[in-house]
Amino acid sequence: MSAKSKNPEEASVTLDSDSELSDWDGPVDIDLTDQSSWKKIKNVIHWTPFVQHFKKHRYPWVQLAGHKGNFLAGEDGAILKKLNQKEHKSLPLLMADILRPYVPEYRGDLEKDGETYVLMQDLLAGFKSPCVMDVKMGVRTYLEDELEKARQNPKLRKDMYQKMVDICPDAPTPEERAAGAITKPRYMQWRETISSSSSLCFRIEGIKKGDGSSSKDFKTTRTREQVKEALKSFIGEDKTLVGKYLRRLKAIRATQETSEFFAKHELVGSSLLFVHDASGHGNIWMIDFGKTTPLPDGVHIDHRSEWKEGNHEDGYLRGVDNLVSILEEL
Hints:
With about 325 residues, the protein is an alpha+beta fold. It contains eleven helices and 15 strands. The strands form five sheets. Strands 11-10-7-13-14 form a five-stranded antiparallel β-sheet. A four-stranded antiparallel β-sheet has the order 3-4-6-5, with helices on one face. β5 (about 105-110) and β6 (about 115-120) form a beta hairpin. The longest helix has 20 residues, at about 240-260. The protein is globular. The two termini are about 35 Å apart.
């Protein structure tokens, strides 16, 4: 697929309105990171999630979360994502792990206009006018060393104070209100408490519907009932689709529980991407590994235990458990 946009900074993923979606979720033994191999087989095989038909069109793009300008359109059902060192180290390991069917395929690196990008599978190729939801997993979206670094130089930040009062005018203390500023550590920790990250170990980051409408207004969506209503709005009344999402989510959870990669890494700021369209196609993938880090020697986590500073727990699996429970209620 070749996709172009007049304004690539407004995009994260391209949408293909003419491709077919395969429901096959198993691993494949072909090394698709080799570009020559990819070109030889992409027009022959149609039964893996990594291979689809592509036609040249213009495609609308979606930016649900993350920094603008991080993504460019690619070819052959791919997107270009600015290289992040932590993600760059994680992707080859994920390609060799049992989690491979549940993450976007990594196809190597590419230099473009002096910038290094990773070439990744376009997860929306194959959906017609897809509905997309980004769910940020875990109890926090900052690494422990990020918090420690912020504490070493706790400058008062007027910009973060403004972000706080824009979301919740009553949040600042009298001292903070008098100063008109807060420190970064204060903002980092407060930000998680107002969303369902602290209560359910996941939060909805953004939703884009098939009609083009989108919303990122979930900063204070905190309670189980609020989250449930948001999921209802995203999925609609299609119980078959709920069943597809549940089966996929349970498969991801079971694989995570036995994955060597998952056992040895702290996953912070990572998301689950939910995608479906009006035809009933639906799928979920693990995305965003820019803050995924190997655990220190001798440290073991179960991704469910309560996070206490220093234990590196991320709450990822507790978040998946809660997502499964809420979808079962739907």
